[in-house]
Amino acid sequence: MNPAKRNVALLVLCQALAMTTMTVLITVAALAANEMTDNKVLVTLPIALMQVAVMLATIPASMLMRQVGRRLGFMVGSGFAMVGGAIAAYAILINSFPLFSLGLFSIGIFSGFSGYYRFAAADAADESFRPQAISFVVAGGVLAALLGPGMAIASSEWFSNAMFAGTLLVVVALQIPTVLVLLGVKIPPLPVAERQKRGRSLTEIMQQPAFGVAVVGSMAGYGVMAFLMTATPLAMVAMQHPFPSAASVIQWHVLGMFAPSFFTGFLITRFGVLTMLLLGAVLNLLCVGTNLMGDSTSHFHLALTLLGVGWNFMYVSATTLLTETYTPAEKAKTQATHDFLMYTFVAFCTYLSGELLDRFGWVTLNYAAIPALVVAMASVLWLMRQRQRGLQGVHLR
Hints:
Layout: H1 3-36, H2 45-68, H3 70-94, H4 97-114, H5 117-124, H6 130-139, H7 141-155, H8 165-173, H9 175-182, H10 192-196, H11 202-206, H12 209-238, H13 243-258, H14 261-271, H15 273-293, H16 297-322, H17 331-360, H18 362-368, H19 370-396
Helix pairs in contact: 1-4, 1-5, 1-6, 1-7, 1-8, 1-9, 1-12, 2-3, 2-4, 2-17, 3-4, 3-8, 3-9, 5-6, 6-14, 6-16, 7-8, 7-13, 12-13, 12-15, 12-16, 12-17, 12-19, 13-16, 14-15, 14-16, 15-16, 15-19, 17-18
């Protein structure tokens, strides 16, 4: 196996472990918070703070990895997950909502680092293999779908007097194999000369139409996914669905998020990045429609699976589109800006989901997801039109 593909294979495994960490956490986080506060509007606050931490970590993480390399940066991120998982587990044991929020904030910093696995794969691959490399790394989350919810259920009652405390210890344990795998990743840092280059200004980069559409697509795809996924376990439990059913729905959702990545890169190559971005938004709208049609376990399963596939198409496509907008010297600040904007919106959506669910209910929450998807679709159609006009101009000349 050549070095590039070997690095991609290891990054796939690292992504799998990172997403298993987050799947285990997301399966129980809102439910654990629900046990610690009587103010149900605050139930999604710890998850929202986690997303704020992701947002705040993206730029420092990118800059750190620019200086010391991807491998050491990812190891630093795993350290934050270990600390955060331990704090959150202890918080559940002593029934401390503020301390639980602090633990999730630390885990969010980890997620801010691990979000760069897809860009690390892009760095390791040549241009022709880049969409597949990004897609394969995201596909590592299939392991998260297969193992995460089951691990959450199995560990939820390790402590008889503190449900879900054991699940947070699983978050800590998952970082050990992550660090061991990272020891085998060999992506050299940029040469000193490259690190000293600045390239175009960030303003110039952001003025590119492709950058704007990539950001809008990521924000809508990730934001709507977090918005609906965070509220789903709470809505299901409120509707008297048992916890194992909610965990099963999350499992199928995560499987929908990552299983398509085995072929998403090929679909992007075949049909184009903008077409796949548009298709992802359509699938997310179908998710909303399914949620509005009924509240049986089957409806939740189908809706969250559609949401997962839609997220995958939008996330991988937007990431691929973004790689068209920067040179090697510009990648750190461009990637960091993209992820900062994306996670800012995700944090807002995550907190808003709890607020809307508590005040207005499940149906209104689903209607609230539609505008972001419509804006994303309109931006993609606009860029398609712009590119079509450009091609027509070339043919005329």
